[in-house]
Amino acid sequence: MSTIQTLAVKGLKNFFSLKPKRNPSISDKRAILGVLFVYLTQISDFTSTVIGLGRGAAEQNPLMANSIEFGGYPGFFLIKVVLAGTFLAWFTWKRKYAPWVLGGLYAAVTIWNSYIIYLAS
Predict the structure, then answer these.
(1) Domain-by-domain residue ranges, the chain?
(2) Which among 5, 63, 80, 81 could bridge 1 via Cys, Cβ 3.0 to 4.6 Å?
(3) pTM of the prediction?
(4) Between 20 and 56, whose confidence is greater?
């Protein structure tokens, strides 16, 4: 394995570890900003999904579709924002790139949802 491949594999294993390595040099302020970004992107995904569903779109994530089917929008909010958001906040706390990468992914999901809403209009 080349050095780049070794670093990439090590980085991916570290990033996706369920026992994340916290970086004590990251300030609480930066860590809180990261957590807020993660929560805001969860809320924007939730909101854009609800709007899209109201315009005839379908939820593509089976877990989220089941939470909507059995718990309605309050159940979906509980699973999506409260539980998933809290897990992701814990996962990303005091990690250098994790909140920004995960938040960026969910921002992309929101942009995609917005595109689907635009098409449905």
Answers:
(1) 19-120
(2) 5
(3) 0.83
(4) 56
